[in-house]
Amino acid sequence: MSATGGVAGGGAGTGYASIFVQEDVSTAEVDRLEAVHAPLADSVRDLVAATIQTCVDEDEVREVRAEVDALVARLRARRIDGPAGVRYNAEGRSWSWGNAVVGERNAVAPPLDVVRDPDDLVHAETVLGVQYEGPPGMVHGGVGALLLDHVMGVAASARKRVTFTGTLTMRYVRATPLGPVRIEARVDREEGRKVFVVATLADPDGVTVEAHGVFIVPSWAVTDA
Ligand SMILES: CCCCCCCCCC(=O)SCCNC(=O)CCNC(=O)[C@H](O)C(C)(C)COP(=O)(O)OP(=O)(O)OC[C@H]1O[C@@H](n2cnc3c(N)ncnc32)[C@H](O)[C@@H]1OP(=O)(O)O
């Protein structure tokens, strides 16, 4: 989802009305805050991986847990109530710090840096670590779908329109090893409010997942009707 489509909120009954929020804050300030918070998310990512892989003794585990709990309490001393949502400013900068795929403040997100090429191919590269395991040593199928969904959504949301995933189809050609992956997506065709997107997830040896998706411009976001 994007708040960059000139749609300040979903219509009544969409459940999105309070998610797209305009903030009176400069892009420079958003960038500055992001530079402070993103490294924290990086460190928490390391913590997640370390939690999976650690072989320290049990007492050490208990002590570390107490320290982590204390850090959580410090961070919660002042916080927003609920999800981070999608925010945007008057300069057209949007940010979704809690997003599960690209959220700069979300340690669950890899995070993905999604790039739109001049020819409208959208791509992203990342390295999937031990926290994304499904089959032994392999990327969880749902994680692959998660990353594909987002990159396909960006492809569908060209020209700043809002689209939502309608239907996604995945063909898992072969297992994806943990490690570097590349996602590519492009719009195949459009029919009315339906945007058909094709995409791939690949490891360094080639494509591991092929995806087809139907992304819909929701009726409430149609502004030129
Ligand atoms: C730049 C930043 C980009 C960020 C990218 C973010 C990527 C992440 C994307 C997501 O995760 S979005 C979250 C997951 N998706 C949802 O929560 C969507 C939930 N469903 C809805 O909100 C609505 O059902 C939906 C917007 C998909 C459709 O509602 P509408 O009322 O606008 O559709 P309508 O019923 O009028 O149908 C319009 C056309 O779409 C078709 N359609 C509707 N739902 C569909 C569906 N689910 N799958 C395929 N086609 C669908 C429908 O048949 C029809 O086709 P025709 O024009 O040919 O008659």
From TrEMBL:
Domain Thioesterase as annotated: residue spans: 137-209
Domain of life: Bacteria
CDD domains assigned: PaaI_thioesterase (cd03443)
Enzyme class: hydrolase
Places the protein is found: Cell projection, Ruffle membrane; Cytoplasm; Membrane
Gene3D superfamilies hit by this protein: Hotdog Thioesterase
UniProt keyword terms in alphabetical order: Apoptosis, Cell membrane, Cell projection, Cytoplasm, Fatty acid metabolism, Hydrolase, Lipid metabolism, Membrane, Transit peptide
Protein EC: 3.1.2.2
Broad class of the protein's primary localization: membrane
Lipid metabolism recorded as keyword: yes
Protein name: Acyl-coenzyme A thioesterase THEM4
Organism: Nocardioides abyssi
